[in-house]
Design goal:
This protein is α+β, with helices and mostly antiparallel strands. The chain folds into 3 domains: about 100 residues, Beta-Lactamase; about 80 residues, Helix Hairpins; about 160 residues, Heat Shock Protein 90 (2-Layer Sandwich), CATH 3.30.565. The strands form 3 sheets. Strands 2-1-5-4-3 form a 5-stranded antiparallel beta sheet, with helices on both faces. A 5-stranded mixed beta sheet has the order 7-9-10-12-11, covered by helices on one side. Helix 4 runs antiparallel to helix 5, helix 6 packs across helix 7 and helix 7 runs antiparallel to helix 8. The chain starts with 7 loop residues before the first strand and ends in a 9-residue tail after the last strand. It binds adenosine-5'-diphosphate and magnesium ion. Adenosine-5'-diphosphate binds next to helix 7 and helix 8. The site of magnesium ion has 4 residues, from helix 7.
Length: about 350
């Protein structure tokens, strides 16, 4: 059987002993291969996989054996697709039973991701439409409040109220713009980009977004860092968002340390044999602020998650999107003592460029 190389095979004898169990089967069931298992009762060897035991135990009781059925292995959270058949002796009697199966876990995950992507795409379209519809009335409110303010120069009360309306409208408008930015698909304009330049531009942009006050900034970019293949504008947005968050976390006092260096080659997890480890660049944005509380750390990248009264919760969602578009990675380390460090790892040249 040629394809048994990648399929799991488990066979038992009529009296319930293991006859064959290949390496894939051991691996899928999370067991260590051992020749001593052959001849042992399958209920013993597979005691940690009660679902499999149940199926094998039914093999000699069922008239119609399951063909292309699916089974969720609860103990190891895997999904297998399997076929159970009898092994017949020369008289046509069932001398044993064989289970052939495939680990479908990855297929399932991919399908799940596909479904999620479809759902997000639909949501994104709706959000984009709403944001678009809101932009004009908001601009109208702001302009008209401005006109009105000029008509009541002598009333400080009305001046104050109208000023509030204008600044609230500006805020709403900023959120709408950020939302549009978030839902719009990213089309990278890849060019040879200097990370040092990106980081300098980002500092300036962050300073214009959030007042820096007493916050110190240190920047250390490794000398002779090669240019990378990336979208200068998008990378600026990415680091602007990280720095703006750092400024906000520091609330006027503290330090933001920015570093960039060539990183160790990324290990290849794609499993394809011809993939070479890609040279990477590692950029860190670290602040000595209060840190991200552990109980929210896994949600901060979610769109609309914010702990700030005036936050949009889209900054890090956009960051993640830009990092993904560049085939990069972002990691967070944080503690109340040391503050927060976002580490962005980018390939010096994205594999995607070959497809674009
Ligand atoms: N440097 C940081 N230090 C502490 N908390 C942070 C930092 N960066 C992000 N966060 C947390 O992540 C949340 C989400 O950030 P973000 O997506 O940029 O949205 P927003 O800034 O609008 O709240 C913030 O509200 C904050 O709680
Ligand atoms: Mg933010």
């Amino acid at each position: 059987m040629v394809q048994s190389m990648r399929n799991g095979v488990l066979a038992i004898t009529r009296d319930g002993r293991i006859a064959v169990m290949n390496e894939v089967a051991y691996r899928t069931f999370g067991l260590t291969p051992s020749p001593e298992d052959i001849g042992q009762p399958f209920g013993d060897v597979l005691r940690d996989q009660p679902d499999v035991v149940r199926i094998m135990a039914s093999a000699f009781e069922l008239n119609h054996l399951p063909n292309r059925a699916e089974l969720r292995l609860k103990t190891c959270r895997k999904v297998i697709g399997y076929t159970l058949s009898h092994v017949l002796d020369e008289r046509g009697q069932a001398a044993g039973a064989a289970l052939f199966f495939k680990d479908l876990t990855r297929v399932e995950q991919l399908e799940e991701r596909e479904r999620l992507r479809d759902r997000l795409a639909a949501l994104g379209e709706m959000a984009a439409a709403i944001a678009h519809e809101l932009k004009n009335p908001l601009a109208g409110i702001e302009v008209m409040a401005g006109l009105l303010r000029r008509q009541v120069p002598d009333s400080p009360d009305l001046q104050g109220l109208l000023g509030d309306i204008i600044s609230e409208t500006k805020m709403a408008n900023a959120i709408v713009l950020e939302m549009l930015e978030f839902v719009r698909p990213i089309r990278l304009e890849v060019e040879r980009t200097s990370i040092a330049q990106v980081l300098h531009d980002a500092v300036r942009m962050a300073e214009s977004k959030v007042s820096r006050r007493e916050i110190g900034i240190t920047m250390s970019v490794e000398a002779h860092l090669p240019l990378i293949q990336g979208d200068h504008h998008q990378l600026c947005r990415l680091f602007t968002n990280l720095m703006a968050n750092a400024f906000e976390a520091l609330d006027g006092k503290g330090t933001v340390a920015i570093t960039a260096a060539a990183g160790p080659p990324e290990e290849d997890h794609s499993g394809s044999p011809d993939a070479h480890p890609a040279p990477m660049i590692v950029i860190e944005v670290a602040d000595n602020g209060p840190g991200v509380p552990p109980d929210i750390a896994d949600r901060i990248f979610n769109p609309f998650f914010t702990t700030k009264a005036q936050g949009s919760g889209l900054g890090l969602a956009i960051v993640r999107k830009i990092v993904d578009a560049h085939d990069g990675r972002i990691d967070l380390t944080s503690s109340p003592e040391h503050g927060t460090c976002f580490r962005v790892t980018l390939p010096m040249s994205s594999r995607k460029e070959w497809y674009q």
